[in-house]
Structure formats: C-alpha cells, structure tokens
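The passage that follows is intended for readers who have already worked through the single-chain material. We present the inputs for a multi-component assembly, then the predicted structure in tokenized form, and finally a short commentary. You are encouraged to pause after the input and sketch how you expect the pieces to fit together before reading on.
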Amino acid sequence: MAEIAAPVLPRAKSRVWRKLRSHRSAMFGAVLVALFAFLALTASILPIADPSATDWGAVRQAPSAAHWLGTDELGRDQFSRMIWGARASLLAGVVSVAIALLVGVPLGMLAGYFGGWIDAVISRCTEALLSIPFLILAIALASFLGPSLTNAMIAIGIAATPVFIRLTRGQTLNVVAEDYVESANAIGLSTPVILRRYIFPNILPPVLVQSTLTVASAIIAEASLSFLGLGQQPPAPSWGAMLNTAKGFMVQAPWMALWPGIAIFLVVLGFNLLGDGLRDALDPRED
Amino acid sequence: AQAQTLRIGLESDPDALDPDRSRTFVGRIVFTALCDKLIDVGADLSLIPQLATEWSFSEDGKALDMTLREGVVFHDGTPFDAAAVKANIERSKTLDDSVRKTELSSVESVEVLDATHVRLNLSAPDAPLLAQLADRAGIMLSPSSFDSDVAANPVCSGPFKFVSRVAQDKIELEKFGDYWNADAIKIDRVTYLPIPDSTVRLANLQSGDLDLINRLAATDAQTVENAGNLVFAKAEGLGYQGITFNIMNGAKADNPFGKDARLRDALSLSIDRAAINQVVFAGLNAPASQFVSTASPYFDPAFPVPARDIEKAKALIAEAGVSTPLELELQFPNRPESQQVVQMIQAMAAEAGINISLSAKEFATMLTDQKSGDFQASQVGWSGRIDPDGNITGFVSTGGGFNDGGYSNAEIDRILAEARAESDVEKRKALYHEANVILNEEQPLFYLYNEAWLYGVSDKVAGFTAYSDGMIRLENIELKQ
Amino acid sequence: MLSYLARRLLISIPTLILISVFVFTLQKMLPGDPVLALAGEDRDPETLDRLRELYNLNKPVWMQYLLWAKGVVQGDLGVSIRTGLPVSDMILSKLPVTIQLAVMSMIFAIVIGIPAGILSAVRKGTATDYAANVVALSGLSIPNFWLGIMLILLVSVKWQLLPASGYVPLTEDPVQSLRTMLMPAFVLGTGLAASLMRHTRSAMLGVMRQDYVRTARAKGLAERRVILRHAFRNALTPVVTLIALLFGELIAGAVLTEQIFTIPGFGKMVVDAVFSRDYAVVQAVVLVTAIGFILMNLVADAANVLLNPRLRLS
Amino acid sequence: MVTALTDDNDNLLSLRDVSLNVRGHAAPLLDGVSFSVSRGETLCVVGESGCGKSLTSLSIMGLLAPALSAGLRGSMEFDGQDIDLRDLASLKRLRGSRIGMIFQEPMSSLNPAYRIGDQIAEAWRQHNPGDGMDQALEMLRLVGIPAAERRLRDYPHQLSGGMRQRVMIAMALVNNPALLIADEPTTALDVTIQAQILRLIARLQTERHMGTILITHDLGVVAEVATRVAVMYAGRIVETGPVEAIFTDPQHPYTIGLMSSIPPLRGPRERLATVPGIVPSIETMPEGCRFSTRCPFARSECRQTPPLQELAMRHFAACHFAPLEHKLKGAA
Amino acid sequence: MNRPMIEAADLSKRFDVGGGFLKPSRLLHAVDGVSLSVNKGETFAIVGESGCGKSTLARLLMRLLTPSSGRITIEGHDISDIAGADLRQLRRDVQFIFQDPFSSLNPRLTVAKLVAEPLEAHRPEMTASQRRAEVARLLSQVGLRPEHMDRFPHEFSGGQRQRIGIARALASGPRVLIGDEPVSALDVSVQAQVINLLSDLRDSLGLTLIVIAHDLAVIRQMSDRVAVMYLGRIVETGPTDAIFERPRHPYTRALLAAIPGPDGGGGAGLAGETPSPIDPPTGCHFRTRCEFARDECARTRPPAEPTGEMSEVACLRWRDIGEATDVMPVAPKRSAAAEARFRLYRDAMGQTENNSQQGNNR
Ligand SMILES: Nc1ncnc2c1ncn2[C@@H]1O[C@H](COP(=O)(O)OP(=O)(O)OP(=O)(O)O)[C@@H](O)[C@H]1O
Ligand SMILES: Nc1ncnc2c1ncn2[C@@H]1O[C@H](COP(=O)(O)OP(=O)(O)OP(=O)(O)O)[C@@H](O)[C@H]1O
Ligand SMILES: [Mg+2]
Ligand SMILES: [Mg+2]
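Having made your guess, compare it with the prediction:
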C-alpha cells in the first residue's frame, strides 16, 4: 500500500507537447506554416501553371477564372508564382537561420562555458556586429556577395548570427551555474560530454524559440533584400522580388503587390505565433 | 503676385554641381536651368547659339572661332567675355579631378581675340567638339567663383541662380533678373526633387506636390493620360539599350557567341523588339537597329529594325555547326525595366534554342566586370549624344573607352576617325553608312530599343516642350494658379 | 554612477574600432570599382587613375584604413566620392531627418505600446489581452515596406490625404513637416509598438508574479496603484533597455522606410552609398550609427541605474 | 508561554467551511476548512508542503489568483461582521488595515524600487490621513531596527534577511490590525534570526492583543509560539486543539507520523519512523480520508470521510479510529 | 577504525568579488583557515548559518573548487592540486549529494541515463546491458522502482529525486559521500525517509559520510562528530553528543539555544546578524555578537584548543566560560496513551517499510 516510490506526477515531455497542442494560436501558426511548407515542397507536382511561362498577350491581368490571382508584368500566372515564391521565402528563412545557428550556437557555448579571453574576444565581436543595424549589415553583405537568393540567405544568416551568439552565451552562463552541471563535474564527466549532454540540450528551448522568431524576421529580411533587388533573381519568383516588380505597377495593377504582401504576412505571422506558443509551452512558469 | 515655384521630380540626385566634375545625366538637367553653355541644342537637335552667337571652323579644321553674346553677366555680376571663356576652358582642361579633359583633348589653346571673340586652337580637326561645347564642356562659370567651392555654390550665367541644395532632398534655384533672355522666363523659382521610385514620383504629381516629373514609367503613361489634370509629354531620345558581347576581352570571350558573328545575329533575330516595346514600355519607346535613333539626322534608313525570324535564327545556328541548346550568360543591371526586358529575351531566345542564364548585377559591379572581361554578354545602354561620334566610336574602335568586348577592326577604326574629322554632314553620313554595313555584319553589339523621354506634367504648367536630348528647358514655361 | 558610465564608454572603444575595421574590410571586399561607378559615362583610363589617386584608392588597404582612421580621430570623416561633399556635412544634414523620424516613431510606439502592454498583462487571458496580442503580432508580421507601399497607394494616390514622399524640416513648416512624416512614422512605429507592447506585457506578467506585488495588495492598496506604482515601476527596467535596443531596429527600419517614402535621411543615404560604393559614407554612417547605438545603450544603462536603487547605490 | 485563556466572547475570526474547487477536478483543493482565532491567541497551522496552508490564508485575504477564486466557497465572521469570501471588496477593506499579513520570502516581498520607510508609510496612507512617515519610524523602532531614522531611507537590498522580515512586520502592523497572518515567516531565516523574529512576533502580539494565524511546517515553532494548533493535510484540517493537547496527546495518525519523523533533540538516537509517500495531488486525491493512501492503519472504512470529532476539551481529530490505542487493539 | 579518511590543513578559499574592468577587486573569505580530519566510516557533520562557508568547504574537499591555500589529503594522498587522471580517480572515490533535488539533476536525461553516466565515465568496460542491470540495482538500493528508469527527473517528487541523486552518487562506487544539505529542501516526512536511507547505506556500504546541515536535530540524528562553522572558520568540533550536551563555544551555545521549542529557547538568544565575509571582524570572527567578548578577542585569532573528549574549541575564553548544559528546549511529555499510539505507529510503519523493501527486491 505505502509505496515509497510511486511516481504521481504526469509525464513531463508530453506536458510541453500538450501545452503546445492546446495553445490555439500556436496551432493556428503551425497550420499556416505547414500549409505554406506543403505548397513550397510540392510546388513542382501541383497542377498549376508554369511559373515562368510568359504570355505577352495577357500582361497584368486582374484576377480571373483563368488566373486566380491575375498575371504579372510578363503575363505569368501569379498564383503559380506565389506558390513557387513560397519556396524561396521559406528556404531563405530556414537556411539563413540554420546558418546563424550553426555558427552562433557553438561560438556562444564556447564563450559562455570557457569565459576568459575566449569570451572576451567572441563577445566584443558580437557586440560590434550587433551595433550595426541588421538590415544595413545584410545589405552590405548581400551586395558584397552579389545579388542572388543563396547570397541573400548567407547575408541574412551572418547578420542574424550575433543574436544567437549572445543568446547562447547568456543561456550557457545560466546553465553552467545550475547544480546539475556541477553534479556532472562531480561525477567526473569530461568537458565535451558536459557540453553535449548538459549544456546543449538545456540551452535549446530558448534557442528554439528564438529560431522560430528569427525565421520570421529572416523571411521579411529576404523579402526586403529582394525588394531592393539583392535577393532572388528573375525569372525565378520570390515574394520580395514580386513586390519589387509590383511596386512599378501599383496604380495599374495593385493586386500584384497585394498577394505577395499578404503571403509574407501570413507566413511570418505563422512563425511568430508558433514561436510564441513554443515559448509559452516551454516556460515552466506559465502553468 | 505670389512667387511661382515650379517643382520638378527627378529620378535621382545629381552629383557635384560643378560642370567640370559633373557626371550624371540629371546633373545636366539642373545645369540647363542654372548655366548657359556656349552652344545650345534645338528641338531638331541642331546646334543653335546660346552664349556664342556665331562659330566657324578654319579651313584646315584646326581652329574654331566664336563670336560671343554681348551684355551677358554672371549671377555674381561679373561680366561674361572672351577672357571668361578662356578661363573656363582652361579650368576644364587643368582642374585635378576634371572629367572634361577627354572631351576637350583636341583643344590646344584658347586665344582671346577681343572682348567678344575667342579662338580655340585644335591639335586636329574635331567635328564632335561643337557638340561637347553644347554640353557641360561649354558651360561658363563666373571666373571669380573658381576659388570657392563651385559644387556647393555654382555661379553661372543661366536663367536661374543657385539658392540652396540639400543632398538627396532638393535643389532650389531662383530667377536671375539680369539674364540676357529674361523675358522668356516666366516663373520665379524652380525646385528639383530627386525621387527614385517612379510610382512615388507619379503619386506626388497626382497629389499636386510636383508640377512636372522626369522619366515617367512607360507603363504609367496611360494613367497620366487618363487623369484629368495631368498631361503626358514625350520626345524621342538619343540613347539606346542593347546587348554587348565579349569578343576578345579575356578568357570569357572564349564562347560560341564571342567567336561566331552568326550566333550573335541568330540571337538578335530571335528577339521580337516590337513585343518588348509593347509589353515593357507600352509601345512608347522605339525598337532600334543602329547606334543613333530616328531623332538624329544621322539615322540611316538602310538599316531597318530586324523583324523576328526564328527560322532564320535556327538556320544560322545550324550553319555555325554548334551543338544546341546553346548556353549564354547574360548580365544586366538590377533595375526593374532591364529585368523585364532580359526575361523576355530569355523566353524568346529559348525558342531559337538558346538557353540564356541571367545574372543581375548592381550597376557598379556590372561595369567593373564588363571592363575586366568577366562577362559573356551584357545588357547595357547609352544615354546618347547629339553628335553620332559619341554614340559609336568609344564602343567599337580599337581600345575605345567603352569597348569592353574588345572588338577590333582596322577598317572600322579608319572610317570612324575619318568621320570624326569631317565636318560636312553628308560626307559623314556616307562614312557612317559604311561603318554600319560592317557592324551589321559583325554584330559586336546589337541594339534593342531607343528610349523615349517621357514626362508627366500638371495641367497648371503651360509651355513645356520635350526635347530629344532629354533636357528640361524652362524658357516659356508658365504656371497657372 | 558617473564613473560607471565613464567605464562603460571606455569599454565601447574597442568595439568601435572593431566595427570600423570590420566595415572597412567588408567594403574593400565589395565587388565593383567605385571609380568606375563614379566616372559613369565619362570614363577614360587617365581620369580613372586620377580619381583613384585622389581618393587614396591606389594605396594598400591597411594604409587606406589608417589614413581614414587618422582622419576620424581628427574629426574628418572624409569626402563623399559621389557628391564631393565632406561626409560629416552630409551626415549632419541627414541626422535631424532620421532623428525626427525615429523620435516620431518612438513616440507613437511608446504611446501605443506601453499602455497596451500593461492593459493586456493586467487583463491576461481576457478578450482585451487576446485582441491586443493579435494586433501586436500582426504589427510584427507585416513587412514594413509593403505597409508603406500600400499606404502610399491608398492615402496618397487614392485619397490624396498626405504627401507620398519628401521631407520638410520642422523649423521650416511644422505642420507640413508633421504631415510628411506621419505615414513613415506610422509605418516604422507599428513594428516598434508591437515589440514594445509584447515586451511590456511579458515584463509586467513577470513582475506581477513577484512577491512584492502580493505584499502591495496585502497592504490593501488600490489595484491601480498596485499596478502602476509597484508593478510597472519595476517592469520599466527591461522596457527601457528594450527601447534603447529598438533604436538599432529603428535605424534598420528607417533604411527601407526612407527608401520608400523618399526621405532624405540616414537610411536612404547608406543604401545609396552601398550601391554607389561610396566607401567614406558607408563607413561613416555605420560608425555613427554604432556610436548612436552604444550611446543609446548607455542612456538605457544610466536610466536603469537611476530606476534601480540596487545599481544606483553600489 | 502564552497560554492565555481565551473564551469565545473574545472571538476575532471564524472561518466557516471554506472550499476551493478547481475546474476540471472533482476533488477540491480546500475541503471544508473551518477554524477560529480569538484576540490574543496564536493559531498555528501546520502540515507538509502543498497541504493548502497558503491557499487558506490567501482566501482570507482575498488574494487568491482570479482563476482560482472563482471556485472558492465559504464565509468568515471577522470582528462580528459576516463576510462571504467571494466578496472581494469587503475583504479588500480589511486587508492591510484590520488584517495584516507577512510572507515567507523576506528577500522578495519588499519592492526593490522604493525606500522601506516609504513602503511602510504607504500602508498607513492607504487607510489613514497623513503621510505616515512618523508612524513608519515608530514601527521601525518597535520591530527593533537599530538607527531607525537612517534605515527609513534605505532600500530593501541594503538590509539583511532578518531586517527585511522586521520591515515586513512593521508594514503589516502599522495600521494596528486585529489579526496578523504570518505565512511561514521564518522558514527562510537562520535559526538565530528565526528565534529573534519569533520572539518579536510573540511580543507584539501580546502587547497589541492581536489574534495571529501562524503558518509553518516546523513543529518546534508550533510548540514555541502556538496557543492552538490546526494540523492540515491535503486541504483538510485533520486535527485541531490547544497546543498542549496536540503535543502531549496527538490523535491523528498524520500528526503522529509527522512527530515521529522529527529527529529527537534528546534521548537515544534510533531509526526514525516516517510517513511514507507524499501528499496526494489534486489528480490523485483518494476518496474519503485523504490520508488513507499513506496511513499504516488504513482500512476499508477509510473510504468514508471521517468527521472531525471532539476527543477531549476543544481537541478534535478526523480519524475513524481515534483514539488509536483503543480502536486498533486487536485489529492490528 | 580511527584512521583519517580525509584531512584538511589550514584550508582557505577566497573569492574575488565585485572586481571587473577598471574596478578594484575585493576578496571574500568564504573559507578561512579550516583544519579538520574525518575518520574512515564515520559521519562527520558541518553546521553553521547561511553563508558561513559550508558549501564552499564541501566543494573544496572534493576539489570542485581549488583551494586558495592549505592542503587536503585523502588517505594520505595530497589532492590539493591534482588534475587529469588523478582527479578522475578522486571523482570515483568521493561523491557529492546536492541540496536541491530539483536543480541538481539534468532535466533532459532519463533516470537511467543519469545513473548510468558515472558508470560510463568510470567503468567503461561495462556493456550496455550490464550497465542497465547495474542501474536497476542502484535504484532499488535507494528504494526506487527500477521500472521507472526511463522517466525524467521532474516526473518524481522531491524525495524520490533525492534518491536518484544518491543512486547516481553511489554508481561509481565511492568510499566517501559528501552531502551538501541533502535533506534541507525536503518536508519532514520525506526528510526522515532520506535520513534513514543514508544511514542504511553508510552501514551496508561502509561509507564515510560528510553531511552539511543547518538543522541541528538532523545533525544530531545522523552524525558521529560535528564541526560548527562561523564566518568561514570552524569554531568547535567534537563528538556529537558532547557538542549537544556540553557546548563550549558561545556560538555553539547560541545555536542550540535558538532551536525553537516549547520553552522558547534558552536565554536571551543571539542578538544581531552575521557580519559580511568580505570584511570580517578582526581577531575572533564571533566577537561582535559574543556576550563574553573582551578586548583581546579583537586582537588575536583564537587557536583551536583541545578540550578533551576529542573536542576542540577556538575561543580565547572557553576556560572562563565553562561548559553550558542543557540549553536546548525540552519536548513536552507525552501522555501514556500517546506513547502507545506512537508505538503502534512505529510498528505499523516498520511493517510497511519491510513490505515495500521486499517489493523492491522482487
Ligand atoms: N492555481 C492552482 N491550480 C491548481 N492547484 C493549485 C493552484 N495553486 C496551488 N495549487 C495546489 O494547491 C495545493 C496547496 O497549495 P498551498 O500553497 O496552499 O500549500 P502550502 O501548504 O502553503 O505549501 P507550502 O508549505 O509549500 O507553502 C498545492 O498542492 C498546489 O499544487
Ligand atoms: N563562486 C563564488 N563567488 C563569490 N562568492 C561566493 C562564491 N561561492 C560562495 N561565495 C560566497 O562565499 C560565502 C560562503 O558561501 P557558501 O555557499 O559556502 O555558504 P553556505 O554556508 O553553504 O551557505 P548556505 O547555508 O546559504 O548554503 C558566501 O558569502 C557566498 O556568498
Ligand atoms: Mg505556502
Ligand atoms: Mg550552502
């Protein structure tokens, strides 16, 4: 009857998951993201028009049955370009954040764990990069690398890196101060093991949240760069590039600017909602 | 009455307002109001008197005599005379960072004959010199302002004098009361506002915040025409847009298009120039076939715009014996219009079996890459000069300043040099015809379209005329309230 | 306190040097010869060489940096290769424009963001909170430049209520100045207001969990007083820090906003300068922005020290 | 010790049948909690962590989180006045003026942004005219803070934990409340400081003839300061009585288990008897007697909720088998 | 039996606090010249108020911190500045139990992983299945059910987590266990369970135990010898009963007198609060709160002097003060009926404990 060790608490991993699942707006965000991700992934097999098939006879046509979202300045189908554009936008968001993570997290962990001059050097550089406004840095980098989607992603990735370095460093400092890291030391575990098993998984939740939110801003940044002509190059579509072109036909064909704007808004909203939901779900205080 | 200010929207901010250091096209527009030149350009592109009332070349073409207008004063009150001309031309030739040196390279010395007569001694006959004197090389600054910062406060003798400038924001001028032709000036002030985005420029015109906008987007012309309170104006331009090939500039020239003129011709034939003009420019520009536009007296009707001919293009490719599909890298400046044009070309060329890969570059990068031969083909253009020499010699003569493709043909070099030294129009025409024949055969570059100058004008503005040189002349313009 | 700030300033010197070196190297790696861009249609080898000479572009990169740094230390930021004007003059003439834009956006953001944040934290879980969050998230998710374009289309082109572009100094015509800045400030301010609202909310939620808020309630204080005097006062610290950090975002946002509304400010200048390879200008703008950023952080630190007795007294 | 005889006429607070239900759970967090406190008396509420001690005190103060207070039922009679516990406005009027409260965490319970004098005075100002600074000073002297004039202008972080707890007491008492609720006021303090604070509370309470509810889980503290004791377990009061009765004659198996778990300070050291397991959470709450899952004597009868029965003068226990030594003979 | 397992000689640890860029640094003397000796198989307790350096001392003893000065030896081997393989060996022999069962277990690892980690580090020759079996054995040794190996720490209650921590500490097969307030964070009922467990383990595994606590009752229950710390120094050591029944140092007396209980603790209690370890009082650290302090106390640091009974006291005036007796509160006498109830309870508990023990060993 009197079990010494009957665990009575609910399983915790599922608790985060449950919290996320019951988070209505997060789920809405997840659905938005999933929808666009699905379109982006399946663009090539969806029964839609060729996004670069031009039709001189049907330029800048308003939405109609034949072209649900109208046509662009070269008579290409906007609907299909929007779907293909999702590819560029999502790719840009995800790849640039991946770059930032790949560079930022290890550096931040090193700085936070070892401290001393390593920390001093990394932190100073981070600070320097952080005090250059994100977009200016991205523009300078993008024009250094030359206008292309890949280069825009690299530029945004580099520009987003310091945020992750700083976040990771701060989190690492917090985690290092935790008793369980000291307990790992007391057990006699080696530094790489401690970094891998103790520091990394425990700094992950905030990094994950930040990643989601950064994907959102990276998508906007890609659109901004494309808008300035530094991103995706023609004839491949991207929402920012579409806006860039549409800007010239604002009066004659306002819908050309409408769709990409709405799409960017929705995807970014999706990522933001998801990020917020993740943050709430991972926050132990919010019960 | 209230001071009347004409507000003009420009597509970009002029650079230094010093005629010897100015390089931008919009800068020239501002100089038109601010500074008089020795010679002016008429609506028919003929050279007409401005500060010089008469001019003539000596028999051997090595001296240019000019008679100067009397009673002209600079904005600071300094009188204009032959000594001022000498001082100005010498400044252009000697100032450290003068960009006028090449234009005036044939001028060896300037002789003051008397107060109103001046002679330019030339090292060799130079027909295009007159056209240079109708441009910034001919602008006369007040010699007493040389010591101050000219760009910050240019002192000329034009109909308007400089008031203030805020970089990237506005340039303000006001009417110069002592102008020699003051009667023709009916407005009190003029303000130039650089607004790069054509939509925003148009929006400002529509809302009444601007009275006149330069470089109306072709696709907006309809909007302007439809608006009750706006007027659309247009003039044929002198410039062109085309495709330049890398013929002999470095390793990248080693590609089928660099080596075989037939392929270049095939590409040219695959392009439907009329369609481009229609789709991208609402039919307002002109499809082009040669280095001058129909506005120029030198236009050669023997070379009409090539019609699209896919079959012939394919035949030429077959004849060249290369394997299809052909691959070609085409670089272009990342501007919306160029982007549309090259995308259309890409689609059209594909039908002839030419796969074009596009590479957008910032203008600065593109020029550098072009100069260093890091390109196969480049979609570039030229804003155009009144004298035909300015539209061709630098581009195709051996070692020419703009000959980035490295094209070299001794025959062409000879013909163009001869035409340059010739001042008789008919003889020059014949020479240029000869050149056209060769160039049409070899196609080191081909032409796509001539840009027209498009303006949106408020209906409050009366008396505005569009000129083929793209300058906005303020004489006779009136503002109704 | 003063010595603390002085120390902070000293620490930022290496940061500034790092920034300048970084920007300098980055620029030197940019493709495109500034001289070619500059010469435009009038290029011949002689002119180009002369220009290179004039702007020290023919010297080794480290020399160029040292020459530039020497100038900066002496207060000379160099000459714009494009306009031929001294960079410091250009910056001085642009600064007020961007500052006006920034201040107006910030005021907008503060006036909207902070009260909304407090309200939604206090009413956590209610419809008010939900609505405020939805609006804020939307504000964060709308691309600035798109919002700007749409506003121009509607407000300026269609309804012709406000000018689509331009800038009138406040001193010249205050009414017109505010009119021209209204839309840009709104566009720039929405994102900020959203950020501010969200951060205020979460700071407030954090503070309202604190024991001393419960103590204040236990004293029988009116709820209003508990929230404003006890909770908000302590939530202010992170919010003030955020406002300083947002300054950086503001400048970045200004880049696009100024581009779209053709406002002759800092952001526009830097984009134009990057595109025309106007090294001296890019360099100076980044440096000045970084200094501004550091100063804002310093101000935030100082404000925090003033707000937080724990820091003030140690 | 304070063994002031209290008669019911002196009754200050009677808490009646307080229940707290949480949406989605059948078992209430608090279940029929009733007790009373007289003037000059110290009622100690003891029990393990999570037994509902703090919830009870917060209910009296009307300070439950809004989400929780929706499920609150019950009333109290305070100073002759009948108040429904859901009537937050009435509770708020009492708060800080008639009922003072101090909390466990002296480190975080003071607002770091304001001077302590100001914080005490604010409590005065809320309920009285005047700026309250004189009263604040007087209170600081009263709670034994040296150099009180100077300390008035200190910020909380300049004080040690013990000092801060004194400030909290000063703040709670500045309006001379009739009832003081102290929720584990010494748990976070060192033994030597704890002794000081307990003495202080006891002194002030006698001087002012306050009723006091002291929440703690330390039976030593209970033995030191209590006049009466209520033992709480899983949201119910399982045993209550005068302090002597609880210590000399504990009845409920839970009370006995708690006492057995404490290592003795004297006498032989032997293996400790424990209370196995942990307090059930709202999800795992058993039917009937809530202690039955941990009770070594649990039988099938325990499925029924045992009533609080009076086993001796004013000594109640809620166990079917009390007194154990009679009812369990043979059964074991 | 009385061979020392761990000895510390004049051990000090100073922390550099408040220092930073362009800022003068200040030294905090967390541990200030501590000497002690712990015998094999005994339980040694360290008691003192918050901030007096107990945890720092514990971390020094197992070399999680490096001493600023002084020496530590384990069975005669100097471990004051070992590194690498020697340090790993030390980690095997000396293990640590943390105060906070919530923060000392990595929340992202399962119990099996947590307990297996020291095995991986110190007994790499084990196969995965051997390891799993060993983990199961360790878990049942601390009274947990091996079925719960694959759960995460936060799915357990505080007492259970403390058991996981203990299992983890036992995994490398240590000979010394240092517990930094191993039961302070637990409720009395659970605390009693863990106290019992630790003493069982000590007896069955022959461990040497060093226990830090501030609850004197807990210390009396667990330890053979006690050291009382005040502001970085040990003021008195001796066998537990001697310290509790005949405390000599004024601080020890005050501590015992402050234990709450029915008679309100003995005497006036201790006034004032502990001074800061950044600027401790000169001479005797305790003199600012000591009723017996004289001028000399401000001048000389009192040496540790033996008082007989294997005790030492660091007070200049211990001879004058004499020994106090019975400063602790007296528990009220239970009625005979109550005693009977307690016996009943104890018997019933003994049975359930045995039952569950068997259940675990099944
Ligand atoms: N909002 C809530 N929703 C559900 N359960 C809650 C909520 N707040 C508190 N509880 C639960 O109510 C029970 C009683 O909590 P309470 O704080 O009153 O305990 P306590 O006896 O004061 O414990 P401690 O000694 O730890 O302070 C706990 O089990 C707690 O988990
Ligand atoms: N890493 C550190 N850096 C600076 N100061 C420290 C550090 N660790 C401990 N201290 C200080 O050293 C002193 C002793 O700390 P320690 O943790 O050893 O005390 P303790 O007796 O264990 O206290 P507690 O009972 O609160 O756990 C304290 O004043 C503490 O603030
Ligand atoms: Mg509590
Ligand atoms: Mg400790």
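Commentary: Chain B has a mean pLDDT of 91. Residues 425-442 of chain B form the longest helix (18 residues). How closely did your sketch match?
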